TrEMBL record:
<dbReference type="Pfam" id="PF00929">
    <property type="entry name" value="RNase_T"/>
</dbReference>
<dbReference type="GO" id="GO:0008408">
    <property type="term" value="F:3'-5' exonuclease activity"/>
</dbReference>
<keyword id="KW-0378">Hydrolase</keyword>
<keyword id="KW-0269">Exonuclease</keyword>
<dbReference type="GO" id="GO:0003676">
    <property type="term" value="F:nucleic acid binding"/>
</dbReference>
<protein>
    <recommendedName>
        <fullName>Exonuclease domain-containing protein</fullName>
    </recommendedName>
</protein>
<feature type="domain" description="Exonuclease">
    <location>
        <begin position="3"/>
        <end position="171"/>
    </location>
</feature>
<dbReference type="InterPro" id="IPR012337">
    <property type="entry name" value="RNaseH-like_sf"/>
</dbReference>
<dbReference type="InterPro" id="IPR013520">
    <property type="entry name" value="Ribonucl_H"/>
</dbReference>
<dbReference type="GO" id="GO:0005829">
    <property type="term" value="C:cytosol"/>
</dbReference>
<dbReference type="InterPro" id="IPR036397">
    <property type="entry name" value="RNaseH_sf"/>
</dbReference>
<dbReference type="InterPro" id="IPR036420">
    <property type="entry name" value="BRCT_dom_sf"/>
</dbReference>
<keyword id="KW-0540">Nuclease</keyword>
Amino acid sequence: MAGYAVVDVETTGLFPGGTDRIVEVAVVHVSPGGERERSWTTLLNPGRDLGPQHVHGIAAADVLGAPTFAQVAGALAELLAGRVFVAHNASFDARFVAAEYAALGFDVPVVPETCLCTMRWSGRLLPGVAPRSLAGCCAHVGIPLEGAHAALVDATATAELLAHYLRVLGTGACDADDWWRAHELAETACWPAVPVHDVGCCLRGAGAAQAAVPFLERIVERLPGTCGPAEHQEYLAMLDRALLDRFLSVREREALVALADRLGIGRTTARQLHRDYLTGLAAEAVRDGVVTEDEVVDLVGVAEMLGVDKGEALEVIEEARRDAGLGEGGAGACSGLAGCDRFRLRPGDLVVFTGDMSRPREEWMRRAAAAGLVPHPSVTKSVALVVAADPDSLSGKARKAAAYGIPIVGEGAFEEMLRRL
């Protein structure tokens, strides 16, 4: 008897076989006696937006570099073959796994007869009236469950629940012929030969780890000094668009590195351009004669993203204060954004919305229209802005916007833009 493969998947939605996909999968091997043997998990790039991110907590930045299901299908098949497929609400997980394989042209024996559902068996193996949820079943028998809706966390808790069931079955307290029949069918089921690819797993937090490396450090340190003012302005214009929401997404960081490489901008030049950009922001802040605490916090925050230390940022602010007293042209002359094609959202601009947002999309569309903007259903080159649930969204709209160089911002940044309009 080979044992069990306890599975949990996190998905973009509720409907396998259509547009919804698996975004995280975990497998825990459990021996016939209930001992945990090994664990495996990875995020998956679904090639679309991530759906209810507030439920599964996966950031788009984390899956940008994750493997696709096709790339891990062979490794996953090896983990599942010959074992009983176990999950809490197994119908949901099994249908998603089977649908992903079917989309690749493989008919896998992940069917009700080879599966065991810890939710369904709770009524027979747990004392009293057990709740249906995994958290409820675990609490019922004293199994800790912290960080639910992460695939490996849920799979591990389900494995512990399975071990509890096996101990109850060992007492002979329940007729379990159908339980052992699932073993027989799983062990003899024929799995197709799914190619195994040499790809690594991707875990939660990968995007944050990548963002922790300043993108400035990824710009080539020494490049031929062939770039001139026009290239500098192009770089500053992209920087301005990337920082509209005061957040540099992984996609934006990669785009800035690629642009610097294409324009021949080395790290030393980029560092100076970043200081110029801060100088421009500081000059704008002092135009009304007052630099507020919020403006200082904003400038220091931008400086941190650009690899400029806090002391240098404060120095830039003091320089702007001094220059502001020189009269018209004093502050403007020091602006690193002078001549830069700065982004401005204006009445009549087309705005596109994408992703599962915290507020209904219809509400955002009404507010945009009330501000004089024009909500648009699709991304074209005439669109001014894309508002996404996650700036690193993998939706088709976000990918198209990135290809066109259209800024992508989150809800908070868009709300601030509406306020300014």
